[in-house]
Write a structure and sequence with these properties.
Arginase, Chain A; 15% strand; 276 residues; nine-stranded mixed beta sheet; 9 helices; globular
């Protein structure tokens, strides 16, 4: 089975808001991973405005067209839709999506924090409409609460949203896991094992989306004390969970974090974990 890598060369000339030019040396820094027979690199098309209008106001969409990073968002959402369809159809087993200017802070009417369009909601909608698949899980291990995703999915009983952030809350499908202002690799991984994996195994999603920020890394803007190696171990845990509950269907969407050295260290290894 094939691992898909989704990257747009727009990121080389258009630094993302907040995260900056951390992807400027990709995909080249993935190195030998791209030579593996079961890894395929995809360039992708922007999302259609008709699809975006199902989730965002026309004003939000139009305002992005005049921003230097607007194309980043349109192409990132397009990649999420394409990657999700390919994973659900079986063309790909899993995927790594390099993302800029879209993500978990984008709600129906407002967005902030460097993510100005929602990427998971259009992907889930498309799969449901086109392929008749319903249950999904969204894991968020970025430093900040995924308020836009929560707004999009708060009444959706067919999506399990588990967000690791600075608060604690849980109902049947909307969960916040408080990790505190300081943590370490082992304690955070134990929380994932306790708070996400059992819920995912009970919920049995058709696919796991993972909004993975490295802003929690030491020296990054959301530093809570995690080392660079933490993120590789985290992906191993979630990949194993996906193997157990949804035949390995797992899509990583890159989230927050501005340290280029961290991105260039963790994502080649993460791609290799997905392909192994």
């Amino acid at each position: 089975m094939t691992t898909g890598i989704f990257y747009s060369h727009i990121f080389k000339t258009s630094p993302g808001p907040v995260v900056g030019p951390k992807f400027i040396n990709f995909p080249e820094v993935l190195g030998d991973v791209l030579k593996l027979p079961n890894v395929k690199l995809f360039e992708h098309e922007p999302v259609s405005e008709d699809l975006l209008l199902k989730f965002h106001t026309e004003q939000m969409i139009e305002s992005l067209k005049n921003r230097p990073y607007g194309k980043n968002a349109f192409y990132s959402v397009g990649a999420c839709v394409t990657a999700s369809k390919k994973i659900i159809s079986g063309e790909l087993k899993n995927g790594l999506l390099f993302n800029s200017a879209s993500g978990h802070h984008a709600g129906p009417k407002q967005a902030w924090g460097g993510t100005y369009l929602n990427c998971v909601a259009p992907a889930v909608y498309t799969i449901r409409e086109c392929m008749g698949v319903n249950n999904f899980s969204l894991l968020d291990t970025d430093c900040h609460h995924g308020d836009g995703d929560r707004e999009m999915f708060k009444h959706d009983s067919s999506l399990l949203h588990v967000c690791f952030c600075d608060s604690s809350y849980a109902d049947e499908t909307n969960v916040c896991v408080g990790v505190g202002w300081r943590s370490n690799n082992n304690d955070y991984l134990d929380l994932v094992r306790k708070e996400f994996i059992p819920r995912a195994k009970k919920f049995m999603p058709a696919m796991i989306f993972h909004f993975l920020g490295h802003d929690t890394c030491e020296g990054d803007y959301g530093d809570i004390g995690l080392t660079q190696d933490f993120f590789i171990e985290l992906v191993k845990e979630v990949k194993e969970c996906a193997e157990d509950v949804c035949q390995g269907r797992y899509l990583i969407i890159t989230g927050g974090g501005s340290r280029r050295d961290v991105a260039e260290y963790i994502f080649p290894q993460i791609a290799n974990v997905l392909a192994s």
